[in-house]
Amino acid sequence: MDAKRTLSDLEDAVLSLISEDEIVAFHRGLVQIPSVNPPGDCVDNIAFVQKPLEEAGFSIDYIFDDPTQPNIAASYGPTGGKKLLVNAHVDVVPIGERSAWKHEPFGAEVEDGKIYGRGAGDDKASVTAQVIASLALQRSGIPLKGQLIYTCVSDEENGGVHGASLVAEKYPDPDWAIVGEQTLNRVAVGEKGGAGVQFVVHGKTAHGALPWEGANAIEGAAEIIVALRREYWPKLKDRVHWAFKPSSASVNMISGGVKANVVPDRATLLIDRRIVPGEKPDDVRNEMFEIAKQAIQNVPGCTVEMEIGFPGKEANANAVTDPLVVAMLGANEKLGLNTEPTGFSMGTDGRFWNAKGVPTIIYGPGDPSLAHIPDEWVGIDEMVDAARAYAVAMVRLLGDYEGNNN
Ligand SMILES: [Zn+2]
Question: Which domain holds residue 295?
């Protein structure tokens, strides 16, 4: 029987197949195909991603419920062992004001080692790095014990109902999931949770000239906002977890009123509430509701009710000793990249797998503060580093080498 190859032998075999030229060509091609969401038509993007994987011999599963927002799962490696799912999205947010861009939004212009364009970072850099890493793993032909399931989805920017949600229903039980979003190639052990809420204030309508005969719902909403700001927001900065920015809340939408001369009988507030490990969605919603109920008493005749649009989600944070985290941190260490774990303060498609109990981390090239803004860009070197790091993590988790007990 042949002796098993060593880990570094396998890693080197895969890394030698990752080329910067291929990364740049693939990324530019992807950015040059618009996939703005809404409407979110990603047919051509998904076809672009599918082609090289299919040609390489990956088994392709085309998954959709809306034909304009397809998704693929491309599998490679033996079944029956562990499964590593890797994911990123091809849809992008609108460009906003064209005049705010110095670069062509879908030109993928290269300048000073950067590639510019909508989606250059979010999330086509992660897509590119993951595809190139997957291809390198396959081309190397190194022995594997487990299976890679590379998934590329639509609809992330609009909630993922037609995207990752569907894919997670079909592939619910990988042993590990790596979601590509902009972490500057740091290992994010998890993501914050969410507990958004809508407060609906009910009042009593009256002629605008006779306000004492009504109950002004907008004034009631104002009382709630002020009370939350004074009594609740200050508490949140003390709710911390090492991986994340503090717990947070923000009143992000307000509506109410029908006419300048009518006392409004209804107003609504939408509060974006992001939570850290240890906080429970129902608990934090009730905390805010208690304050709202108190505050509304300042406007006699008004009442407030709480409406919940989505069930909410707790934060998740894998232990740094989790094999998935260890593999990704080990990849960064081998490549001389950042080895300090962090957390992701925004939401990702990873929540669909995390909700099924799958250990899920977030890792990808690009700076999250450049996402969704004009002249979005990503560094070519960052994408090369990410492709290499994904590839090393794939080898560590799935490779058949001396000492791999996965
Ligand atoms: Zn994204």
Answer: 193-307
The contacts of residue 27 (CB under 8 Å, 6+ apart) are: 108, 115, 120, 124, 125, 128, 378, 383
Tell me the CA–centroid distance for residue 365 and ligand 1, in Å: 11
Q: What are the structure tokens assigned to 80, written together?
A: 């029956």
Give residue 259 CA to ligand 1 midpoint distance, Å: 39
Question: For residue 125, how far is its CA from the centre of ligand 1 (angstroms)?
Answer: 10
CA distance 182 to 196: 23
187 and 201 belong to one structural domain: no
**Distance from residue 268's CA to the centre of ligand 1 (Å):** 29
Stated as kind and residue range, the H or E segment containing 199 is strand 197-202
As a whole number of angstroms, the distance between CA 379 and CA 377 comes to: 7
Residues 333 and 353 in one domain: yes
pLDDT tens digits for range 207-252: 999 999 999 999 999 999 999 999 999 999 999 999 999 999 999 9
Taking the complete model, does pTM exceed 0.70, yes or no? yes
Question: What is the DSSP code (8-state) at residue 294?
Answer: H
Q: Is 183 found in the same domain as 206? A: no
Residues 292, 221: Cα–Cα separation, whole Å: 9
What distance in Å separates the CA atoms of residue 350 and residue 190, rounded to the nearest whole number?
Answer: 9
Give 337-374 pLDDT, tens digit per residue.
999 999 999 999 999 999 999 999 999 999 999 989 99
Asked if 203 and 347 sit in the same domain, the reply is: no
296 & 161 share domain? no
Q: How far apart are CA 225 and CA 85, in angstroms?
A: 42
> Distance, CA 272 to ligand 1 centroid (Å)?
18
The residues with which 269 forms a beta bridge, in sequence order, are: 199, 254
Q: How far is CA 353 from the centre of its chain?
A: 12
Which of 286, 307, 328 is the last residue before a domain boundary? Answer: 307
Name the β-bridge partners of 71.
Answer: 63
The radius of gyration of the chain from alpha carbons, rounded to an integer in Å, stands at 24
For 18, 50, 98, 99, the CA distances from 378, given in Å and listed in that order, are 18, 22, 19, 21
Q: Are 236 and 246 in contact (CB under 8 A)?
A: yes
Same domain? 30 vs 164: yes
Q: Write down which residue in 307, 338, 362 finishes a domain.
A: 307
Using the mean position of ligand 1's atoms as its centre, give its distance from the Cα of residue 339 in Å: 22
167 and 209 part of one domain: no
